[in-house]
Every structure is written in C-alpha cells, then in structure tokens.
Amino acid sequence: MTRTSRGSGIPPVLLVPAAVGLLFLLLPLVGLLARAPWADLGEHLSDPAVLEALRLSLFSAFLATLVCLVLGVPLAWVLARAEFRGLRLVRALITLPLVLPPVVGGVALLLLLGRRGLIGQHLYDWFGISLPFTTAAVVIAEAFVAMPFLVIAVEGALRGADRRYEDAAATLGAGRWLIFRRVTLPLVAPGISAGAVLCFARALGEFGATITFAGNFPGVTRTMPLAVYLSMETNPEAAIVLALVLLFVSVVVLVSLRGRWISGASS
Amino acid sequence: MSSHSRPSPRGLPAVAGLVILAGALGGCGGAEGVEGADVRVFAAASLTDVFTELGQQFESERGTTVEFNFAGSSGLAQQIVEGAPADVLAAASPAAMAQVTDEGRGSGAPTTFARNRLMIAVPAGNPAGVSGLEDLTDEDLTIALCAQEVPCGAASARVFEAAGLVPAPDTFERDVRAALTKVELGEVDAALVYHTDVLAAGDVVEGIGLPEPSEGVNDYPIVLLAGAFNPGGAQEFIDFVLSDTGRATLAEAGFDLP
C-alpha cells in the first residue's frame, strides 16, 4: 500500500490536543527522572539484587516471547484464514487479556494451574509438578498477558498480505506446509517481528499476573516490576532507580527492534 | 479489505456513547465520594474486616460516614507522605507509622489501639502435617511469608531470628492477605499471618500458635493526620476506636488490647 502526501497536511486544530497528549504520556517519565537519586545511582545499580531481578526479567520475557511465537503465529494464521461460526467471538476472547486487569489473569491461572487447580491438581498428583512459585509460572503469566499483542500484529499482517503469491505457489504444486513456510511466513515477517517486540516489552513490564500466580522470591520469581513495587513500600529511592533501569531497558528494546522492523518493512 | 480491519461507521457512535456515559458516571461517582465521606481513614490491610465493621457502627451512631483505603501500611504511609488526602492513619506497625510522623504529617502522638500476634496458618486438615516453626525451615514444604518490606514480614523475620531458625520460603507476599489467600487456596503448606487473619478465614484455614509469641507481636498505632479535612470528625472516629464499643469489636476479631 502506498499513500500520497497530497492534502494530508496536519490541521492546526489538531496540534494542541496532540501536544497535550504527548506531554500527558511523557511528563510522568520526566517526574521519574527529576526525582532520581543520581548521586547514589551507581551504588543502587551495583546491588546484586537489582542485577538478579533484571537478569530474571530479561530471561523470562525472552522465554515468554518464544512461547508466544510458537503458539501465537499459528493462532493468528487460523484467525486470519479460517472461516467458521463463532470466529468473531474467538477473536474477542483472544484479545480479552489486553483489557482484563492482569491480577484477574493471575487469579485465573492460579485456579487453573495451581496445585489445587483444575489442571494443576493432576499435574501435582501424577507428576509431582507444582507450577506456582517457579520461574516457569513467571513465563506462563507473562505469555498469557503478552500473547494477544503478537496475535493481533501477525493477524493484521496476514490480512494485509497478498494472497496471490500463495495461490501462485499452489498452482506450481507446492503443498500447504511448504507454502506456509516459504511464502506466507517471509511475507509477514515484519509483522511477526513487530508483534514479538511488543510481546517482549509487555512481558518485561508484567506485574499483576506474575505476583498473583508466580509469587515473589528473589532470583526465582521476583522480576523487576515486583522489585519496584516492594521497594516503593519502604525505600522509594531504590524503587525509582529500579524503575529507571526498567524504563531504560524498555526504551532500548522498543527503539532498537522497532528500527529493525521498519527497515525490514521498507526494504 | 475485510470489515474487520477498521471500525465500522456504525460502531463509532456506540463507542462515543460509551465513553460519554462512562465519563458522566465517573463524574457523579467522584463528586459523591468527596461530598459523602466525612472522614477518610487509611488503614492497614489486616484491619479490613474489623474497621469496615467499626465504620458501620460509627456511621449508624454518629451519622458521620467513613471512607476507608485499605492497603499495606508502608504503602499507605508513602501515599500520605506524598500528599494523599487522608484524615486518619491506622498502621500495622510503629515503623510504618514513623514513616508518617517523622515527616511531620501526624497531628500529635499516635496511640496504640490494638496488638496482633503472628500465627502459622495451614490449609484445613493440615495436609503437610506442620506442627511448629521448625517445619517452616523445611525446603520440601511450600511456604509463604510476608515480604520484609511490610509489617507482617518484618515481624516474621524477628520471630525466626529470635528462634535461631532460617526459614525456607517459596514466596514473599506483598501483604498479609495475599499470604493468607495462598493458604486458603491450598497453594502453600503454611504461611505466617496474623491471628486475626486465621479467624477471618473461617473453616478453610487452621492456626498454629507460636511458642514465643512476644517477638511476633505487632502494635497497631492510630493517629490524626496534620492537614486533615475534618479534624473534629476524625478525632471522633479515633475516640470511637478507643472506646469500650471499639475495643469489644477489636477483641471479637481476635486482636489483643493494650
């Protein structure tokens, strides 16, 4: 799709609310920067507990993104290409975690996968597996909250993709699986990487579902957002430093990967 | 392009209508909240049940409405220091109270109105066979403690230190109610919570007392806040908590009285 720039100048009347909107989103971050204890920054940052939480956050968000890719891309494909009754309902249900308070997601996961949960009790009785209070639970909580971002992005890319390439491949005798791998996937790769970036960033910031389902233990389930929350109770300075680190990492992730995605899309 | 990729023209007015409706409702609710509440009390999460009851008693006796903000004491103290509008603070520990009074946000000295002692809470039937504090050092059991940043966690740390034991927790919960919930759901084998929480949980939770309870006792101070919107009404509520009626209600909920 190409867009011309003719007649697309910005009406001045939109500039004021746009500027206010921008300030509304950015000023809280300025507040964070203004209150940061810059002098003690090094001391706070070299705290092993901070590094531990950061490492766990990056690790679990990476795994959660992998889970979302493996499950979410096929799901997006089905949503974009399949036709069946109730498709709209399914699509609505899939996007539910986007609007649901993450704590509700955490409660739901606990009631499903906890050791007294619907599925969790069998995992526990048959295999002795108890998911809450493990890093696996962190990954599950993050994937639950982040997957819709990936599915929406990939589904949009699939709907926008030109079906004629697939049709051409089919007339040349390629099977469905080959077409999916060699034609469809490369076609929507920018959409997939965009979705994966959003997914990773959302997983990195996940708090409510994590603390509710996975609990909070240093090195196992205490990710950066949990560390920020608990520090805020007694040591706001440390909380501000942790928040800055999380902010910095998120910006780096979004800027660097988004840049790659855009260049990929335009090439 | 299919119709899914952009909102239908018919959908837009519906969305706009919803937004306007929500705005109108929110506006009414907000105005009512400010005018309707005569006294605003920030209180520790562990006071949720008993203060809700005290508030109802106070309201029917005096006609003054009380609005509560229940959360972890330290978090409440931070909110007040940052300027949250509150008339009264009831905290679950002197340390949390000091966060407020040290900043000059208290009006006069806090009064200790209740005490709470820690107890081991186990799911009904005690499936893991927990019998005492030593069992909470067992790596094989799933144990929840309060995070050290909140009063019940600080008290728990004192209990273990006094007993010369190193606990083996699997999670540090954000407040005592979160720890209790994990016991209620049977997701942990034991947790250290307050006596009052064990009582409030009813039949699904059993309590095991600690042999040396003095280390696991938290004093609950209450204070009138400087800059209260309604200092008179706030002081009346504090007096009510300290009255015989208030003390009876607190005792019934399982609090010890100073």
Automatic annotation (TrEMBL), chain A:
Its main location: membrane. It holds the Pfam family BPD_transp_1. Residues 54-257 form the ABC transmembrane type-1 domain. It is a multi-pass membrane protein. It comes from the Bacteria. PROSITE patterns: ABC_TM1. InterPro entries: MetI-like, MetI-like_sf, ModB_ABC, NifC_ABC_porter. Belongs to the binding-protein-dependent transport system permease family. CysTW subfamily. Part of the binding-protein-dependent transport system for molybdenum; probably responsible for the translocation of the substrate across the membrane. This is Molybdenum transport system permease.
UniProtKB/TrEMBL annotation, chain B:
Keywords: Metal-binding, Signal. The keyword Cell inner membrane does not apply. The keyword Metal-binding applies. SUPFAM superfamilies: Periplasmic binding protein-like II. Pfam families: SBP_bac_11. Belongs to the bacterial solute-binding protein ModA family. This is Molybdate ABC transporter substrate-binding protein. It comes from Ornithinimicrobium cryptoxanthini.
